[in-house]
Every structure is written in structure tokens, then in C-alpha cells.
Task: structure prediction
Amino acid sequence: MPKFYDSIPDDIKEWAMAQPVFFTGTAPLRGRHINVSPKGLPSSTFTIFGPNEAGYIDATGSGSETLSHLYEPHNSRITLMFCSFTTLPRILRLFCTGRVLEYTHPSFPSSLARFTGGKPPTGARAIIMLEVWKVQTSCGFGVPIMVGFASEGDEEKGKEGGKKGEIGCGWKDRETLGSWAGKMEGKGEMLGYRENWNRKSLDGLPGLRAAGAKGGVVGYGWRRSWGGGEVVAGVLVWVACAVLFGVAWGMGVVRVEWDGVGGLRR
Result:
């Protein structure tokens, strides 16, 4: 049976931090694509700061779905899922609202220092700060056991559990992404890559704000780009203003004349 919590219990925090992988899920309010992403290196990229606060470091990749969905006005929904692949089953879901701190954001360095995993991954483009509003655990009996990774125990007992370090043996972190990011940064090609692949989501929502910005720097406090709906709304407002001005002009409500000196008078 599932169990629900208003915050992250200490034993679940300990279990989550010991897992080798977790998954993120987001979706736009408007659009067809629902995104699910696997995340490795949780011991160095994911941190639980408190009972209702967590975060993870987002590395540069070939898309920006998560960033786009969290940036979408009135959205910010994100769910994290952890699961056990050993004979001690468990599924953990963290239901959250998320906030994006890009690598150009003034508070990025101080936020990065709060992570306990040491040196951040090469090519980190953002930190996803999470406000956890609901926690769910469930049995995990449907998750397969990875051969050679099972710890002692019996899944038939029906006990939901897990111990710190139960999965550590046998898992090896893949170094490909960090190696690729290091080469891209060394050749000065990372900004161009982000501009080509991180500016928009599959549904056309604005993505990484620093992508395409001059020198990779963008100001904060203003939205850098508009989505399609915002552009249409802006055009309609200008058209409506133009029509109203034309009607007022035709009715004689508004008159503008040249005063012959260098100014206008009504």
C-alpha cells in the first residue's frame, strides 16, 4: 500500500541519497509533449536540504524540456522518482514545484555551494531548486531486479524497505557526459551548442535563457523571450489600441496639429 507524507522523513532521505539514479517528470500546460528524464550521479548532483526542500544540478544536454516547463507561467510542476533494483523494493516520488537558477544567475554560486557532493559536473547549466509538497512511497514489486545487484533479502516478504549503500556495489557512473562537456568548453563551442539545442522546448516554449545571449549573459528580472501565445496577445493589444485611436480621431475626440514652431498641440 502507498504511504503519503507532508515532508521527507529522515530514513527516506537516507535511502534516496543512496540510489544510483532518479527520474524527473514535467509537462507543459499547453502542448503535446510530456517529458521524463533519467538522472545519474545523484550522490554528487542531488541534495535534500530540508524536510521540504531539495535540488539537483542540471547538466547541459540535447534538450531543455524541464527548464521550459518550469519557466512556463503558472506551471512549475515537477515530480522526482527513485526506485530500488534490488530485492529490497521501494518506489519514492517527490511531488514538487521547481525553480530554475541558471549558471548566469547571481545566486548560482552560493546555491551550488549548498550541495554536499563536492565538485559540480562539468557543463552544469542550471540548478533546479525544489519545494516538496507531497511525498509518496510504494511497494516497488513491479520493478525488475538487476541480476548481480540483488542484496540479501526476500521480496516475497512484502516488506518495503532499503538500507543505505544497498545498491552501491556494482554500479559505475558513466563519464561520457562530463568528458563531452569538457571538450566542448575547451573548444569554446558550448555556448553555440546551447543556442542550437537549449533555447526552445519541443512545444516551442522558451528554454535556457542564457542560450543565445551575448557572451552567455542575460539579465534577470525581465523575461528574455516570449512564447507564441504572448506574442499573439501583444499584437492584439496593439491592434486594439490602433483601432480605438482611429475611432477617436474620426469622431473628433483627438486632434493633433503642427504648431509651426517645432511641437504638436491637440
Notes: The chain is about 25% helix and 25% strand. The first strand starts at residue 3 and ends at 5.
